[in-house]
Design brief:
Layout: E1 2-4, H1 11-24, E2 34-41, E3 46-50, H2 63-74, E4 83-91, H3 107-119, E5 126-130, E6 137-141
Parallel strand pairs: 4-5
Antiparallel strand pairs: 1-6, 2-3, 2-4, 5-6
The chain binds zinc ion.
Length: 152
């Protein structure tokens, strides 16, 4: 797990992060939160997500969950491949939020990613989580985002 700069990303990673930021602008949130996600498979397929707020918070969809759900829907299609990397970027319209802060998955999304890792017997799942300005980027494996080794 490491914080890196934009310059440290490969050109492919820069493209993905740019696309995820574009996806974030499709978020539907009354307070203006914008979160975008791309799930990339080992065969180069991309599944996109953006935050979608419904009236009841419990029914709202995180960008990550939207991307994961789309992957699950298409998982049986030929040549889809297996999840390899999840790219996340976001900004929140909250007074305590700053665009220097890195947007990372919420607890529910972490659980779903762990379930996906198990469902597809993935050795590991890489994440790239960025601040909105794309100046601070967290590279991590899912296991590193869990505090207890039991969940790794
Ligand atoms: Zn979430």
């Amino acid at each position: 797990m490491k914080i890196v700069a934009w310059e440290d990303l490969s050109s492919r990673e820069k493209e993905l992060l740019t696309e995820a930021k574009r996806a974030a602008t499709r978020s539907k949130h009354k307070r203006g939160h914008k979160i975008g996600c791309i799930l990339l498979t080992d065969r180069g397929k991309k599944f996109y997500g953006a935050a979608n707020e419904w009236t009841r918070p419990v029914g709202s969809t995180c960008a990550e969950r939207m991307a994961l759900d789309q992957y699950y829907f298409h998982r049986l299609d030929s040549k889809v491949g297996r999840p390899q990397l999840i790219v996340i970027i976001g900004t929140f319209n909250r007074h305590e939020w700053s665009n220097d802060l890195v947007c990372t998955p919420c607890g529910v999304c972490l659980e779903m990613m762990l379930k996906m890792k198990r469902d597809f017997a993935l050795k590991r799942l890489a994440l790239i989580c960025s601040n909105w300005s794309q100046t601070r980027i967290l590279r991590a494996y899912l296991a590193e985002l869990y505090p207890h080794p039991r969940f790794r």
